[in-house]
Amino acid sequence: MNKVVTNLVSKNYYIIVFLLMIFMTVGLFVENPLFGQGSINYYFHIVFVILISICLLIYPKYRSSVLRWMIVLIATLLFYTLFLSYPDTGSTILLIYLIPAISILFFDKRLFYFSIILNPFLLIGTIGYIMYRGKENIFPYLMNDIVGNMAIFFGSQAVLFFIFYFTAERINKLQLYYEQIKHTERLKTTGELAAAVAHEIRNPLTVVKGYLQLYEQDITVDHSLMQSLPLLIEELENAEQVINQLLSLSQPAKNVKTESIDLQTAIYSVAELLQSYGLLNKNKIEVMVETESYIEINKMELHQLLINIVKNAIEASNVGGIISITAGKTKGNHLEIRVTDKGIGMSEEELEQLGNPFYSLKSKGTGLGVMICHNIVKKYNGSIHYTSRKGNGTTVSIRFPSKMDNNRLS
Fold this sequence. Notes:
Helices cover 65% and strands 11% of the residues. It is of the alpha+beta class. The chain folds into three domains: 2-144, no CATH class; 182-250; 259-409, Histidine kinase-like ATPase, C-terminal domain (Heat Shock Protein 90), CATH 3.30.565. Strand 4 (322-330) and strand 5 form a beta hairpin.
């Protein structure tokens, strides 16, 4: 379906471009006062028509920013060439008024702002050139009421600016809304999958785990088998943990008890817990947390959030790398936790996918841990942001509203 729509849009685009090329060609040869006169302006007219035709034809295949800039710049040169070359055609000034509208078609903000700033300078420079050369009588429709024409020009630019600004705002809101709908659909699909599968898997796993624990206590079991039982039980517990994560997505906890948590104590506790895990690859965890930092949150959920983020930082780090955890107050009565590693980092495409169910950069990852972290942060009106570059590590910034500890004030 998407391919059919893309082909239809491409077909319509080329129809419009070919019609535009026909009109420009007709303008070159049919009743053109400069045709056959050997005028340099006429040759410029031909060159710019050819260049913009080529750019428009290849644009669908090479949708680059450079090509967009070339189209707008060549169109600008073409319109000013028409204005100066055919003074008897008063309507050419309307093309100059509409130059910023070309960049609106591409919805390129930088290109639009560049063209709408450049255009007044070009027009003022053109008027100065006409006056310097003493050609006011050739452009009477412009020079006889220069103040009125400039007022119309700046008014048209203002109208184009507001059209672009409000259209861009609307598109941004629609894009955000679309992303939220996609995310909601992913959550819904994940929840339905969890509800349908998790319970059915959990029950047999519990039975198998129970029997393995009984065999572990049975002295008649073969010694070699006895050595394998703890590993089997550990793997079952890992499977149970994944199922619990699925269930937490499909059945979010209600009426969770919150309390005022000292962030310094919580972070040091997690760092101490994961310090030995980091030492497996000679990673060191460094902590620097401001005192008197309190947030209102469920203790277990904060613990789960911090463990997931710090554990991911350790696993992404190179051997001997340092994981830095900092926390403190920010402007606007917020607390910020920053976890930084100097590991493999992530590309922009990978960052965009973080938090989606079943997307993970780990070979055996499920992506549910990061998704649950996002849900916890959102639940407590917080925000989470990733800063990363491939090969230069990652910084995870988590913000929560701060909470003055009532016990501390009493």
